[in-house]
Design goal:
Elements lengths: L1 E3 L2 H8 L5 E6 L5 H11 L4 E6 L19 H10 L4 E3 L3 H4 L18 H4 L3 H16 L3 E5 L3 H13 L5 E5 L19 H6 L2 H14 L5 H14 L3 E9 L14 E9 L2 E9 L6
Parallel strand pairs: 1-4, 2-3, 2-5, 3-4, 5-6
Antiparallel strand pairs: 7-8, 8-9
Helix pairs in contact: 6-7, 9-10
């Protein structure tokens, strides 16, 4: 695996390859990231990953300074997974001057996770567009665990006419159902044992919808109450349309998704479960 930290070096290395599949990350890799690297190989002969902890997507109360940096271990995992090129720039390389031009997503950036992380999706969209311009991939892969991020980036790519296919990778889970996340490291042993409840509750909401329940607001309230009875501090549980994450009507037959963000101790966990009423899953 070749590692490049400068934009000119990365562009030169990329030009030696044809079709490229790209997986952007912030490092501190786990099996969910590696699954995306493996899937990327099915889309292109050359797999490129990036590691960059993007300050623009962290708010003043977020964990930028304590976000785990595990570069050497990350490189070993990427090499084992067969990644061809790694782009690992420093801040001065990607932001040599204050970033004054930004990608400003539509109103959805202020809803759901965006309500609790102001500026987050603006920062994500800006850095991803910048990385796309450096790597120039034909395919880019993002995990479905960050469902709102995936939708924002897919729509950005379409509306800006970028020649890139966006692929959503399925959420990778531990055996007990907990979605793998870098922030799971913040959980104590007792909290780790409690954490799978989030996925079970979201699955229960899906079961209710598939069973014909159409009082979506009540399902959301009941899910929040159940979490809070077990010590969680919940930002939201929301049933939305998969296509645009807008609030569905009770009569909607299109695919839905139930999303949640909730704190357990020091860890803010997010998860989602897709609901396809037409196909019964």
């Amino acid at each position: 695996m070749q590692i490049h930290s400068s934009i000119p070096e990365m562009r030169a290395a990329r030009q030696r390859h044809g079709r490229v599949a790209f997986v952007p990350t912030m490092g501190n890799l786990h099996a969910g990231h590696i699954a995306l690297m493996t899937e990327a190989r099915a889309h292109a002969d050359c797999v490129v990953a990036s590691i960059f902890v993007n300050r623009l997507q962290f708010g003043p109360n977020d964990d930028f300074d304590r976000y785990p940096r595990t570069f050497q271990a990350d490189c070993e995992q990427l090499a084992t997974a067969g990644v061809d090129l790694l782009f690992a720039p420093g801040e001065a390389e990607l932001y040599p001057e204050a970033q004054q031009y930004h990608v400003d997503p539509p109103e959805i950036q202020h809803q759901l996770d965006g309500e609790f992380r102001p500026g987050h999706f603006r920062g994500v969209a800006t850095v991803v567009l910048k990385l796309f311009n450096v790597v120039q991939p034909q395919v880019a892969l993002f995990g479905k665990k960050d469902y709102q991020q995936l939708m924002v980036l897919r729509n950005m790519t379409r509306q800006l006419a970028l020649p890139i296919e966006i692929v959503g990778g399925e959420t990778v889970r531990a055996e007990d159902g907990l979605a793998l996340s870098s922030r799971n490291a913040y959980l104590s042993a007792a909290e780790r044992a409690e954490a799978p409840r989030l996925q079970r509750i979201l699955s229960g909401v899906r079961t209710a919808v598939l069973g014909g329940e159409r009082n979506f607001a009540r399902l959301e309230r009941e899910a929040v109450s159940e979490l809070e009875r077990h010590g969680w501090k919940t930002d939201y549980v929301a049933l939305r349309r998969q296509s645009d994450l807008q609030v569905p009507r009770a009569s909607d037959a299109q695919p839905l998704v139930v999303l949640a963000a909730s704190r357990l101790g020091a860890a803010r966990l997010i998860d989602n479960v897709e609901v396809d009423a037409l196909n019964g899953h």
